[in-house]
C-alpha cells in the first residue's frame, strides 16, 4: 500500500449524519477554544498559549481509529483529539491554561505544565496502574520538540512483547494480546530532530505497532519547509522505509490532505488496521494544514507569511472545507451548521467561565482570609502607617495569585519583627506556615513515588554468605542476580547494544538470552536515545525494562530524554503516571577519553526524579538491582568499569537480598579524618587509608553508595562529629559531585559546625582522562593524591608530628 494509493480515498467508516455533525461540533468547539485561549492570554489571565487551531479535522479522524487500550505520545496541538476520545473536557482545557494546581480540575498535570500538555491519569490513588485496556491512554506530553518520539517507540514495543511473549499473556489488565496501537503526533518542522529519524528507523527494525502522524502546516514558527526538510516533504524523504509488500519489513506510508475529511477518515481506518493487526509501523503525512493564529501567543504569523500564503490558509482552513463537504454531500443544511457553530461558541464560553471561577474563587477566598487576619494584626500592633499600604494593595488586587498572598504575609511579619508578640501575630505566622505547606504540595510534591512500592518502602534483606561461598568474578554475581530476577518476574526484560547474543560487553548477561529467549534479553542497534525511550514507554505500560547504555560517556546521547521525560514524569503528572525504568551503565576508571568518564555533575543536575546508584562492586550493584526491580521508581545504576573481573564472594541469596538507597557504608573506622567517596575510588581511598595508618593517621572511609538519594540518615555528619575533618573525593571534574557531596553534608546536614579544619575536595583534572595507564594516573585522583591531601590536613594540625613531605 503506497502513498499514491491514498490519492483518492473513499470513506472507510460507516458513519452516520449524527457522527458527522458531532465531529463538526467538536471541530468548532476546539476552534473557539483556541480563539478564546489566545484572548485570555492577552487579557493577562494566562501567561502563554499554544493552540491546535487548523489541526482539528485530521485529529477527529485519528480519534475515530483510536481504541480502548491504545496509547498516545503527542505534542501540544492535540486538543481536538483529546476531547474527541473523551479524555479532556473544555473546562479542563481552560483549567490548564490558567494553571489550576488542583488535580481534580486539571488532571493532566495539576497546573504544572503549560497548556496543550496532555496526559491521562493512569494510576489510582494508591499509585498503582489502573486496567489500561479499559481506557484510552495518553502518555504525558513534554515541550522539547521531537521528545515524544523515543517514548512512542517504547509504547509500541510493549505491544510486541505482550503479543509475542506467552509469559505476558497473564497481564490482561495491561494488554489484549498486544492489539494496542501507539499513536504519535509531531509537527512537520520537528521531524528535523534526530530523535524522529532514530525512532522511525528503530520502529522499522522492530516492526512494532507505531502510528505517527505528521501535522504539516509548512512552517516551524517562522521558518518555512524549504529550510526544514529536504524536498519539503517528510514522506518523500522517508520513502525508503516503505515496505515492498505484505510480510516484508518496513513501514506503510500514507499521504493525505489535512482538510479532506473523507480522505482522512479512510486513511486513518486503514492505517490503524494494518498497524494493529500486522504490527507494521505507519507514517501518516498530513499535508496542507493551516495555523490560523500562528505558532503561539508570542507573536503574529503575519510577520513572516506572505499575503498569498495567508489567503491560501483562509480558503483551505479545514473547518471551512469540512463545512463545504457536509453541504455538498447533503449531510447538513446551512442552518444546521450555523446553529452548531453558534452553540459551540456558547459551550466554550460556559467552560471558560466555569474554569476561571474554579481557579480564581479559591484564591480570592484565600486572599480575603489573609486580609482579615492582617487587618486584625494592624489593629493589634498599632502600626497602621507602616502596614496599611501592604494590606490595602493586597486587598485591592483584582486578580491576586497565591504568591501575592504569601509575599504580603512574609513582608508584614518582617515589618513587625520588633513589635511585641501578639495573638494576631501568632495567627498570621501559623497561617503563613499553613499556606507554605499547601503550596509545597501544589508545586513541589510527587517528584518520587508515593506508593507502597516506593524505594523507601522496600524491605531490606541482608545478603547471606555460605561458609564455603565461592569467590567469583564480579560479573558472575550480576549474572546470577539477573538470572534470579528474570525467573521471578516475567515482566522484566533487558535491551541494549550487545546485551543479547554475547551477554553484554562485560558478560553480566552471558547465557541468559539462550535461557530466557530473545524477547527477554535483546540486542539493539547503536541508538542510546531510543534505547532509553523504548524502556520509558514499556515501563509506562507496566513492564519492567532494564535498558543498557554501554558506557557512561555515551549517556550524553540519552540525557535529554532522561531529564525532560523520565525524571520529571511523576512530578509533571502529580503522581498520575510512572515509568520504573532502570538504566544500567558502567563508567569511572578504565582508559581513554570516551571510555572512562565520570560526568556526575551533569547527571546530578539533570535527572532529579531518578535515583542514582554508584556501587563500588558488583555485589552492591546486585543489591540495588534487587531493590529497584521490586520498586516502582526509575534509577540509573553506574557499575565500576574496572570491577567485572575482580573477585567477590557470591551471596547465597543473590537474587533476593536488597540494599536500601541513601544509606552510606563505613568501610573503615577512623578517628582523624573522614574521607567520603564512592564507586571505583573506594579501592583507591582504602589503599591510601592503609598507607596513612602506617604514618599514624587514622582515616574513616565512607562509601556513599547512592548520590540520589544522599545519606538520608546523616551518617556522614555523625562521622564528622568524631573526626572533625573531611575530604570529599571522586573522579568527576572539580566542582562536580565532590561539591554536591560537600553541600549535602555541610549545608543540608549542618555538619560545618563539627569541623576543625577546612573541608577539602579531591576531584579529577578539569578534562577528560588521557589514554593509557599514565593518562589515568595523571588525570584522575590516585592513591598518592589521597594520601597527600589527608596528610596535609593533619600537618596543619600537628606540623611537628606530620612535617611537610615536599
Automatic annotation (TrEMBL):
Presence of keyword Oxidoreductase: yes
One term of GO molecular function: oxidoreductase activity, acting on the aldehyde or oxo group of donors, disulfide as acceptor
InterPro entries per record: DH_E1, THDP-binding, Transketo_C/PFOR_II, Transketolase-like_Pyr-bd, Transketolase_C
Keywords: Oxidoreductase, Thiamine pyrophosphate
SMART domains reported for this sequence: Transket_pyr
Pfam family, one: Transketolase_C
Cofactor section: thiamine diphosphate
Location of the Transketolase-like pyrimidine-binding domain: 472-646
Alphabetized SUPFAM superfamilies for the sequence: Thiamin diphosphate-binding fold (THDP-binding), TK C-terminal domain-like
Cited PANTHER family: PYRUVATE DEHYDROGENASE E1 COMPONENT BETA SUBUNIT, PYRUVATE DEHYDROGENASE E1 COMPONENT SUBUNIT BETA
Cited function: E1 component of the 2-oxoglutarate dehydrogenase (OGDH) complex which catalyzes the decarboxylation of 2-oxoglutarate, the first step in the conversion of 2-oxoglutarate to succinyl-CoA and CO(2).
Protein name from the UniProt record: Transketolase
Source organism phylogeny: Bacteria, Pseudomonadati, Bacteroidota, Cytophagia, Cytophagales
